[in-house]
Amino acid sequence: MNGFGIGADLFPLLAAVLAALTCGLLGNFLVLRRLSLMGDAISHSVLPGLVIAFLIAASRSPLVMFLGAAVAGVATVVLVELVKRLGRVEPGAAMGVVFSVLFALGVLLIRQVESLGNIDLDADCVLHGQLETLAWFGAPDSWSDLLSPATLGAVPRQVWTLLGMFALASVFVAALFKELRLAAFDPALATSQGFSAPALHYALMVLVAGATVASFEAVGSILVIAMLICPAAAARLLTDRLLPQIAVSLLAALVAAAGGYLGATAVPGAFGLGAVNAAGSMSVAAGVLVAGAVVASPRHGLVSSWLRRRALALSVARDDLLAGLYRAAESGAPTPAHTGLSAVRMARASGSARRAGLLSTGEPARLTPAGEHAAREVVRRHRLWEHYLVEEAGLAPDHVHPTAEKLEHTPLAPAGDPATDPHGRPIPPALAPDPPSRDIS
Amino acid sequence: MNAAAPLAHTATLADRPEHSPESPLSIHAMTVAYHRKPVLWDVDYDAPANRLIAIVGPNGAGKSTLIKGAMGLVPRASGLVEFWGQPYRAARSRVGYVPQRETVDWDFPVSALDVVCMGRYRSIGWCRPVSGAHKRAAMACLDRVGLAGYAGRQISQLSGGQQQRVFLARALAQEADLYFMDEPFAGVDAATERAIVEVLRELRGRGKTVICVHHDLQTVADYFDEVILLNMRVVAAGPVRTVFTRDNLHKTYGGRLTLLSEAAEAIARGEVG
Q1: Is A116 on the interface with B (CB under 8 A)?
Q2: Fewer Cβ atoms within 10 A, N terminus or C terminus of chain A?
Q3: What is the pLDDT of residues A286-300, one digit of tens each?
Q4: Prediction ipTM score
């Protein structure tokens, strides 16, 4: 396989993208309700539903399969609820018990069906799907030839099913957006207002079961589980509103599906290697996106919290430097007492203070009027806190310095205007207006 | 729980001398059980209209359950509840609810204004988006609790007191006639406490009735007109100055009712039918 071929890749890619979008969309509400494992549970426990529906109707028509899956999906939710209540266990344990038992039941039933001789179900393809069966034999070679009625006729049934399921899920979420959001955020209020949270929950679970079964044949349950959880989880880290979260999750699903598919087919092809399982590669891509979101999330991400900590450390070091100079001037010492900062931190702190116009250039550095004001505020807060800790919180005077050393860097300061701190040093009175300064942070 | 029971209750509800069809909330013989263990036992209560009413009692007395049972949020083992003489389904739009703050996920991706808009959903109806008019009404409610400047904040960025005020604003947005509030004063700062009291009084001024689960016995007399002393049963209910007595409090918090709790435990263990 070399590069992208219309015949080999168009419909498999389309199916994968549609499955990813459908699951990614519905997954948002599972993640919000902290029920991500429910996607896992349902996608496993629909298996016995499919087999039983097949046994009863002796047909593999999409409608029969959908009904079987929907019944199994609802049964899963009911059983999880029952196990949780009667067994008094946490939801994760209840889901784990229910889906593993139901999946095992499905596997047993499949063996039974196979032994009867009318095999048409296979547990393996439930896991990784059969994207390769969607290859289009006799496809045109060029993209322009796709614009013909014959193309529509060639679209495989699985793609139509997925398209229908995606449309259904989109209409469901669009029509019931506000109800789903309310039921996920505050089920008690939703129910008391007449928007039954349990009913909405079951409707969502039926759709998850439907999405699962529609995706099964083409992409398998591993991808379904990955797409129900990963895009929404990544989007949850990157956004703080529901609509942007849904938009980002759809984009993530699209990127993971398309990227994973090309990564599985075109990339190994380019190196002369055989293609790898596309569903697996897409699931890995979805996982990589979550890892990326963990690192880069603006609020909770590793990078942003590292940057925040760094900025905080710098501003603390700068405060300490200025306060040290202030105290030295106060006591008439030629150089400030040792601040406990490393040489590198000291250099960075004084550089930052110079750029902010708080410290004069040239050696030795002196406080500018703005720097004097800032330093005085830090020392004032420090001594006010020491006074507070001794007088109000009842700490011993020789215990308060380390605590005040931390508290002086917060914008808070105890009220009141005591003249001296517990060690007898004067507390500089507050100066109302800030002199103009070029504070950068 | 037999089929004839509701009819029998209907008859008795109207027969009771203290019952009035104008009462915003009439509870008759309500029993609620969790895992077979009774939490509320045969509760009778009629709420007077246009009052601020506190539900007071020890932990596990069934205070939140009284509210949830009345609204049907937890199943009632037996009993009849009416709102202005109607079942809850018919009176839903006239009943507002403020759940305990800890019951929701404050990391949820919504803004303060989004949460307040949720109070309007009942009047907006199924499947319709929140219109500009509803958003403006919600904004006005946020303003009344002093949080107009925080409308666009994601709710996790608010302090505990501000979150409680957002909940209060959402209740105001419901424009109900009867409000149930589950511990609105729990864990809030002094400013929020004053703001909540102000809103409660304003609601009373506009003819509303508010029933609050309340923990702080010190403030009952200051904040409320009426009190329900609850410990599985209604120990006493009525105006604060006549009912909120040392003797009644002793009955509510003291050991007099422990036999009832022991019986409830026995039922939960299955030792009794």
Answers
A1: no
A2: C
A3: 999 999 999 988 877
A4: 0.88
